[in-house]
Amino acid sequence: MSHEPRLIIEGACYHIVVRGNRKQVVYRLDSDYRKYMNMLIKFKKKHKFKLYGYCLMPNHVHLVGQMEEKNSLSMFMRALNRTYAGYFNIKYEKVGHLWQGRFKSKVIVKDKYLIDCINYIENNPVRAGLAKSPHEYPWSSYRERNMFESEFNILDEITL
């Protein structure tokens, strides 16, 4: 089955979502979240992905960022998703797909919508009842962005 070509715009920001297959939990323990974060750090550097915001939910991931090279978004996500799936399947003695199909990506214009999108994903744990405030949830960019609020520009990359 072929897929429609992904819309790739040079210099654009993307809201990327990838879900666990059949909405399954993809992070069972804090060590799983940490492992994903370490892989995210590794592959964002390798594939030149500027990360502006993120939120790891128990069964899905939100990333907001920008590729420095036009056609490397798929390579970045393929490397990240395959590597984490391999880790998960070995650790939990599973086989088959961890992720539900292709990742989804939407182009975001660098304006107020970018800020709204990052705020939306960082508040996802509150809406899901996982935390009372976004500051309480350890697996999102909220704390890092708000720790240095007076110095942080929304278009600054998260340094992780």
Compact description:
This protein has one domain (13-147): Transposase IS200-like (Alpha-Beta Plaits).
Percent of residues in β-strands: 15-25%
Which structural class do the helices and strands define? alpha+beta
- For CATH, the homologous superfamily is named as Transposase IS200-like
| Main sheet overview | 4 strands, antiparallel
Helix content: 25-40%
Specify Rg, calculated over alpha carbons: 15 Å
**Helix segment tally:** 5
Shape: globular
Mean pLDDT: 87
Task: Sum up the structure in keywords.
Alpha-Beta Plaits; 4-stranded antiparallel β-sheet; 5 helices; 160 residues; 36% helix; alpha+beta; 4 strands
What does this structure look like?
This protein has a single domain (13-147), classed as Alpha-Beta Plaits (2-Layer Sandwich). Helix content is 36%, strand content 18%. The chain has helices spanning 30-46, 73-91, 112-122, 124-127, 142-147; strands at 13-19, 49-57, 60-67, 104-108. It has a 4-stranded antiparallel sheet with strand order 2-3-1-4, with helices on both faces.
Please outline the helices and strands.
Elements: E1 13-19, H1 30-46, E2 49-57, E3 60-67, H2 73-91, E4 104-108, H3 112-122, H4 124-127, H5 142-147
Antiparallel strand pairs: 1-3, 1-4, 2-3
Helix pairs in contact: 1-2
